[in-house]
Amino acid sequence: MTNAFMVSGLTKTYQDFTLDHVSFTVPSGTIVGLIGENGAGKSTTINAALGLIQKEDGIVSILDREELDGDVKEQIGIVFDGSNYPEILSPRKLNRVMKNIYRTWDEQAYLRLLKQFSLPADKQIKQFSKGMKMKLAISVAFSHHSRLLILDEATSGLDPVVRDDILDMLLNFVQDEEHSILVSSHITSDLEKIADYIVFIHEGKVVFEKPKDELTERYGILKCGAVQFDGLDKSDIISYRKMDYEWQILVSDRGRMQKKYPKTLIVPATIDEIMLLYVKGEKAEN
């Protein structure tokens, strides 16, 4: 399987933060979710990969090219969390601008999306709400026949119905195996619906890169008391938290753990819970 997007050893240092040799891939025909708490390095990773900020080290390959020339940029649809267009323009005037930027601009597709999202074509963008601006950015990204979509908090500020419509659009987009998506989001329930792989970044480092189904179908949270906790094989524990009335332990194979510890309660873990236990949990000492 070829990769639509690849970063290897991506590094960027600020005074109070370091993106530390980040590496992961977006295989062609897949959706990869990039997760992490605010300030973890998700946006820095995307900006450095796209050349919007200068990286200090690392290799970036997008659509099999290490140089982001005009031809490659035409094939990338980008949506950031915020307005990216001159606010004095209206969507109709923006259409004329985009015709001159993208050789592959599809005016009819764009106008259909404006209608689908109930966006007023002649209203200035500065009068749009945050959610309306996000819908406009998504309309543009879907209107120049991109092969790769890069979305940074693209569903932020949208109501659940519109968000669900956009998730369906993303799933339909990757039905073509030449299409791929990298989506950064703090709404992990969205990623549970659509992602093929999850990349978790914490404090500028990749914690894991795993198939989404492995996380949702195999990972679990073992709940027990202090006596049971002391009897656990510490090599089975990824991390744990001591709560008021129980211990919560993250395990990577809940089926195997249930057989090994039949008297404990083991429940499926959401991606949010997995992330929380990695970040807030403690490591067991053997």
UniProtKB/TrEMBL annotation:
Transmembrane segments: none
SMART domains: AAA (SM00382)
Keywords assigned by UniProt, alphabetized: ATP-binding, Nucleotide-binding, Transport
Keyword Iron-sulfur in record: no
Highest taxon of source: Bacteria
ABC transporter domain mapped to chain residues: 2-228
One Pfam family of this chain: ABC_tran
GO MF term list: ATP binding; ATP hydrolysis activity
PANTHER family for the chain: ABC TRANSPORTER ATP-BINDING COMPONENT, ABC TRANSPORTER ATP-BINDING PROTEIN ALBC-RELATED
Protein name, entry field: ABC transporter ATP-binding protein
